[in-house]
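for the writeup, i need someone to sanity check this before i put it in the appendix. the sequnce is what the collaborator sent (i think, or maybe the updated version? ugh). structure was predicted straight from it, no edits. if anything looks off just tell me and ill rerun, i have time this weekend
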Amino acid sequence: MSSAYADEIPQACVGCTMDDARATANKMLLGDIPISVWTDKTSYKQGDMIRVNGQVANVASGFPVTITVVSPLNSIIAVDQFAVANDGSFETTINTSGNMWKYDGTYTIKANYGSADKKNSVKVELTGGVAYKPTYETPTTSKQCGSNEITANGHCVPFSISGGSITSATLNTDDNSIVINISATNDGTLTVTPSKTVQDGIFMVLVDGEEWDDVEIVANKVTVMFPAGTEQIEIIGTFVVPEFGTIAAMILAVAIISIIAVSAKSRLSIMPRY
């Protein structure tokens, strides 16, 4: 979100300057928003510094602000924690240099303070890097999934949800995860049961970029209890569907067999004959 300013001087600030009026408007706004966060610009070039500012409505002693950055690939690329000032304000800078920021696109900067309901986010555009191309192989024919299945990169994953609905899902081969975007109107529960050919070794769940404890994992069945307003659930395992398909795997197998055969023939040719 961006910080909101008043276009006109509020009645509660008659006689104030416009800067005072803006400060008053912001204070009124923060009465309804637990935490706000904004950046100095909406778009940057790779290598720029992003200045992040924010405000906490009610400061609680001992609680830091957690900043999480999510890339266009839905991967967490940066996490930082720091204390807020006595007036509830906070500020930090983020360096967009490095391999983690190499892709052009929309990056989401999330701010969390104390509890799951005290969160907010801002999106920025990054240019000057590499155009993102999905690493998974696009299926040549689309597979029809059932009404109780998510479609993720052409694969069907059984699910059930209460308190909201699923808007989209993708497989993230970089993090071995299933990324599920949801619209949560109420507190609810999401249960996902991917087959082991799609994902295996599930050991962690992130809710809006944060490690989540309110989770039950039994083999490949994952149940996540989420609060209202949740936007994204990421299920992380040790394996997701490989980046290459069946044909590529067959070619690789043939190549390995050919190498073994040639090596064996070479060894036989150099053996002394009697």
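The chain has two helices and 18 strands. The first strand starts at residue 35 and ends at 39.
thx in advance!!
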